[in-house]
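Researcher: Let's run the pair from yesterday's discussion. Sequence first, then tokens, for each.
Model: Starting with the first of the pair.
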Amino acid sequence: MPQVFTKLLPAWHTVLYTDAKKPILRDAKHAYLFSHYLYDLQREIGFTLCGWVILPDHVHILIHTDQHAATTVINAIVEKTADFMKQSYSGGVSDFSWEPVGKYRYINTTAEFENTLASLFYDPVVHGMVDDPIDYSFSSYHHFLHDFGERGARRIASYSKKGSSLHETQL
């Protein structure tokens, strides 16, 4: 499996927080639409979506793109997803924005990539939403299992036990 992940390096992880951490993505319909919009953006902007998880008040996104384009791609994701939220959410978020904007973490080793992916998938577990990432609908964990199977799941689970804070993403 590391050879596959090597092709996805370098990668970048970003966390998008809702304004004042309002849990506006707790609605299944909007989380579902948002997840599909991420794949639309992947095609439109031109990056590889390596992993994602949508929680009620924040979203984790792990991408691979050309190193020189990373800032531009991440800024486009932030801008376009905020516009999407303004247009698709009827809960009074016409002035929607992500907080903080523009922070991301550079990932350049397979071990760091696997640890970030594991932490991303296990974030709903950490937040007490589910007992196992397989039970959380709004993440790319199911895509990961489809692509990497039981062997991939065991490898990711071994990283999840080491612990990592995804919420301290640095620019």
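Model: Moving on to the second of the pair.
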Amino acid sequence: MENIKIKRRLDEQAKVFTLVSNPKYCSVFRFTVVLKEDVNKDILLDSYKQSLEKYKALKVKLKCGLFEYYLEENKNEVLIFEQDKEPTIKKINNKENNDYLIKVVFCKNKIYFDFYHALTDGTTAIRFIKDVVSRYLELKYSNELEKKYLNDNISIIEYDDPYKLSKKYKR
């Protein structure tokens, strides 16, 4: 069976972010999760990988076509980064981050999620983060927590395209 590459076109707003991104304006936004104890790197990596498998629309890399940018599945190794002090928000280095458009950094008891804005909006980012943190807590405290408190009751269909998901929740 051949490997078929699935390409997804960017929506109009995402096209703008790819065009205006430069060293002064990086089109990255961040959410931070603060836990009550220090982060376990291995458990965080496992939960991040599992969540990316669930949210396949976020497991992509940005490619440049003949006339426009598009998103393509990213099969590279998933990475997370540990730092001694709070990281500054800056452009995601594609080579350092294996072409992923989400960068996960942790420092002591904080987890920083940086998203390239052409990939998703805040609504889908928050849902993704909730999934990662829920899986993290479930893996770390599986004997102590009941799964009913960790599930986010979202159907699998909603994970196909983050833009469809954000339209569903518009006011």
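Researcher: Give me one sentence on the second I can quote.
Model: Residues 152-163 have pLDDT under 50 and may be disordered.
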